[in-house]
Structures are given as structure tokens and as C-alpha cells.
Amino acid sequence: MPDTRAHAQHFADTWQHGWTHHDADAILTLYADDAVHTSMPFRPPHRGKAEIAEYIHRSFAEEHAPRAHFNPPMVDGNHTAIEYRVTDGDHTLAGCVFITFDSDGRALETRDYWHEA
What we know:
Layout: H1 4-20, H2 24-28, E1 31-39, E2 46-47, H3 48-61, E3 67-70, E4 74-76, E5 79-88, E6 91-101, E7 107-116
């Protein structure tokens, strides 16, 4: 039986460090090869690691010196919700990611809801 809480904390820690240091390679290790990521409910999903990588690189290109903070994960079965906040100068992005893990502890599906100020 997978330890979802440990996988969720690893996901949060890796994203926090990866976002702050623009380490997309570390972040991509969190995802299953056929993972699906949806960023905001009305955007088309990114399917597979290549599309997720493209999205992450494009997002990082718009940032200069981000500081990310991820709250402790909330876990139920193989599902997780993690709130986060990223500041970059006078710009702040706050949101929540919902994750479904596969049996190996990799993210199979992620959905983000966020707002910028």
C-alpha cells in the first residue's frame, strides 16, 4: 500500500524547492509519464511529461526571483490537496494543487486553481 502522505510531502517539498530555484527537471520526476495537468479550470490540460515540461518552462521564463512556500498536504486515500503561495517581487500567486497519485507515488493527475495579485 503506497504511503500517500509521504508522497504528498515529497511533492510539496520538491515543488517548493524546484519553483524557487527554477529546477524543472526535479519537478518533472514527480509525474508519471502519462500524467495530466490542468492549470485553471477553463484551460486545456497538459497531457504527458513533455507538455507538462513545456508548461513549467514557459511559466518559469516569466519569473525573476520567486520564493515558493507550500503548506502541509491534506491527504485522503491517494488524493492530496496542497495550498501554495509564490512571491516574485511585488507579484504574488496563491493557489491550491489537487493531486491523484499512482501506485508508485507519482502524480497521475494534477489540477491547479490559483489567483495572481
